[in-house]
Amino acid sequence: MAASPPVSSADLPLPPGPPWYRIHEAFRTSPPQYIYGLIREYGDIVRFRGAFPVYCINHPDHVRQILTKAWPQYTKNTIDYRVIARTLGRGLVTNDGPDWARQRRLMQPVFANRHIDTFDGVINDMTAELVADWRRRRSDETVWLERDMSRVTFKVVSRTLFGADIDEVADEMVGILDVLNQHPMKLSALLTLFPWLPVPSNRRFARIKGRLDDIVDGLVALHRKGGGAPGDIVHRLLDARDEDTGEGMDEAQMRDEIITLMLAGHETSATALTWTFYQLAQNPHVEQRLVAELDRVLGGRPAQSADLAQLPYLKQVVQESMRLYPPVWGIARRATEETAFGGYRIPAGAYLSITMYSLHRHPEYWPDPERFDPERFAPNRAQSRHSYAYLPFAAGPRACIGAGMAMLEIQLVLAQLLQQFRVHPRPGHPVVPLPVVTYKPRYGLPVTLAPR
Ligand code: HEM
After folding, report:
1. Residue partners of 168: CB distance under 8 A and separation at least 6
2. Which of 66, 135, 203, 345 could form a disulfide with 12 if both were Cys (CB 3.0 to 4.6 A apart)?
């Protein structure tokens, strides 16, 4: 029998998806929920048309192909990253190609575990300040949890970057980052792609971004004169040298990396903490078991990085929380070449979306996906699962450089706060996710506090 000729991807059909006249459905819900709905209806590869065709990829094998096996074929040259780059410049998140590779090589050692583990003192000190503040609250007083979590994670990232030098400008910086972080999908954010357009939003953006650049340049200049704390991240970045060329970073690159770390490293961890408290409140049996583990191992003191090995349930709770509420709900890539996944053609130039929100609910790997169950991450069960079915920090060469720091911070903050307080969400308040870059509660999360 003659062998059948190899099928070229050009002969394959495009992936299935909704007809154009169903696009209005996209506006009825949020992007991650819309994509999840399409995946349940059409399967693991879906194509839908928004302003342009979007290819949603939801099988862990294909995700591995994009993020790891063939990663150079999938770039970040997409509209989302171009908008974010107006704020982050050419920092690690938005950079691409050889420039990105050089910067990642330079910065990877700064985030090695042996450095990150030394941040436990800063994390615990910043959490202790929040504990002191919470102790002053009346039992019926409303505390906006997402704001307090954001405050503590901002303090952690800025102190680990700059030492105490940041304190004088911290409030101004929080205000600036809030504005820059708000709704990057808004029209005004798209307009920043055309900075020469004389619209008020562009002038405002330029003013705010200019001020942020000045503050960061000022702090770096102080570091060059010996300011900051020994071993802080900015000192390490200033000392970092490329192994091949012996060169360090210039001032503009340093500024972009610092702004990137501040933004990437603060809202994400705050979001994870906020949703974890929320889910513990919905699942009191999980909270009880977790608090019992903390009491047994720590007996009321804050956790150090070395304690975490003795606190397996704490990690499982955080992992399960980020499964259901992944702080980064999805990422985008552009295919530079034509390719095929699962029998479907993906054209060159296609915009690909990997949606952690739906990947983390894939029924083959996550039975009863909406149920909050930290047992899913018990070591024996986690080991037998596809390693690309759970990607809160993405994967491959462009995985989150701060994953170790984020996990340390989230666990330490939780350990300290949970040993001292019960956190009760205000009954009746609508808790609806708002997926901008991070997946936050749209109307905030008001809570009351009760000392344990
Ligand atoms: C729970 C907290 C966090 C989550 C869920 C998270 C998630 C992610 C994800 C999904 C990516 C990949 C983005 C993409 O491919 O487009 C990423 C990249 C990145 N993250 Fe995080 N992140 C967290 C905390 C942090 C922290 C604490 C830092 C630093 C202080 C940080 C710094 C970065 C940087 C620099 C990149 C770009 C890496 C590269 O492309 O080389 N992140 N993060």
Report:
1. none
2. 345
Q: How far apart are the C-alpha atoms of 295 and 121, rounded to whole Å?
A: 20
Supply the pLDDT for residue 196.
65
Q: Whose CA is nearest to atom 14 of ligand 1?
A: 331
Of 110-119, 320-329, 355-364, the least confident: 110-119
Q: What is the pLDDT of residue 172?
A: 87
Task: Let me know if 77 is exposed, middle or buried by CB neighbors in 10 A (0-12, 13-18, 19+).
Answer: middle
CA-closest residue to ligand 1 atom 21: 400
Taking the centre of ligand 1 as the mean of its atom positions, its distance from the CA of residue 258, in whole angstroms, is 13
> Ligand 1 centroid vs 104 CA: distance in angstroms?
12
Cα radius of gyration (the chain):
23
Helix, strand, coil percent content, the chain, rounded in steps of 5: 55, 10, 30
Tell me, what's the pLDDT at 1? 43
Domain range annotation of the chain: 7-88+332-391
Task: State which ligand 1 atom lies nearest to the alpha carbon of 410.
Answer: 1
Using CB distances shorter than 6 Å, the residues near ligand 1 are 92-93, 104, 157, 260-261, 264-265, 268-269, 272, 327-328, 331, 392-394, 398, 400-402, 405-406
CA of 266 to the centre of ligand 1 (A): 10
CA 399 to ligand 1 center in whole angstroms? 7
- CA distances from residue 159 to 167, 234, 240, 301, 306 in whole angstroms, order as listed: 8, 10, 19, 22, 21
Contact 181, 265 (CB under 8 A): no
Helix (H, G, I), strand (E, B) or coil at 382: helix
CATH class, range 7-88+332-391: alpha beta
Higher pLDDT, 84 or 387: 387
